[in-house]
Amino acid sequence: MDKEHFDYRTGIIGSPSELDAAEWNTLLARQAQPTPFLRHEFLAALDAARCATPDAGWAPQFVTLTDARTGRLAAAAPVYLKGHSYGEYVFDWAWADAYKRNGLEYYPKLLCAVPFTPVQGTRLMATDETAHRHLAATLLAFAEQTDVSSLHVLFPTAEDAAALTDLGMMQREGVQFHWLNDGYRDFEDFLSTLEQKKRKNIRAERRKVRDAGVTLRRIRGEDIRDEDWRFFSRCYRQTYREHFSSPYLNLDFFRMIGASMPENLLLVIAEYEGKPIASSLVVYQRDADGKGGTLYGRYWGALEHVPCLHFETAYYQPLEFCIEEKLAVFEGGAQGEHKMARGFMPTVTRSAHWLAHPAFSDAVARFLESETNQIHAYVHELNEHNPFRS
Hints:
- The chain is α+β, with helices and mostly antiparallel strands.
- Helices cover about 35% and strands about 25% of the residues.
- The protein has 11 helices and 15 strands.
- The strands form 2 sheets. An 11-stranded mixed β-sheet has the order 2-5-6-8-15-9-14-13-12-11-10. A 4-stranded antiparallel β-sheet has the order 1-3-4-7, with helices on both faces.
- A hairpin with a 6-residue loop joins β12 and β13.
- α2 runs antiparallel to α9.
- The N terminus is likely disordered.
């Protein structure tokens, strides 16, 4: 290798607060596929609100490369030492169970990801291709030299995944459902592209909400008041309560991102007779050139049941916002074939994996080969039953 390949100082950072926020965000802005979730403000809020900290099973171990000549950040990745597999959305519970049944420890493991965020985007931030390759190699070397069972990089870009695969990591595929804006003039223009039955069902769902006397408000981040955050947090917690689970995020976190990155937030509130009864929070980002952008469906909850209110609050209102703001993509989040009936199409996502134990690594490799074939067949079948008119 050329000498420049080694002209970096490696850092393992134990908290986002130890990082220079402006330098981190400047590096992020240079990436091909940045997302708001990798902004320093978002990661710092997860840490400060105690959502992604060692006592929650998320110990930050951010990997950084500093240019030894300039002292500037050349590359960085959000890495956590994990004591469980909650909040990841790429499921490896079966792998952990197989380790346990064979008397081996699966945890701790290393995870390169944004906590609680199944959104594909840059994971290996770098100033250039050399720094990118070196960061990928450093990340794998860190895992090999640490007492962990494995390294997992979740929802990376194709470029990140390729760099990691070149180093021998195994690639895994998954499926999400994304909506693409084909330059629609308004919501009715979008509906006109769907099959008649799908159009009829969506109109019926929206009509049920209106006939129930429910009205909707969309509030941009800078206009969200503290009482709105308190109400939304109640709705968010209610969703987890209904699923007999514990929420990953808290009111402090929502308040923090509301204050530090309001330009990326949209809150939808449903009201009945002047009283709020449900809400959803979506995150969006415009492209660097100001044209297009992406909206990410994130969190939803309701304190009262109204038929079809979930679809109106978490899908149709954000879709209208996308069309009005000329955002190009609405990523609907993890899972959900039901999204296809509303114009969302299957999209393949990626993750990269390294397991220290050779026998288990071979077994997982065979499993992933079979799973990938199943994923491709699944996506092909879904595309054959797409909701759009021929």
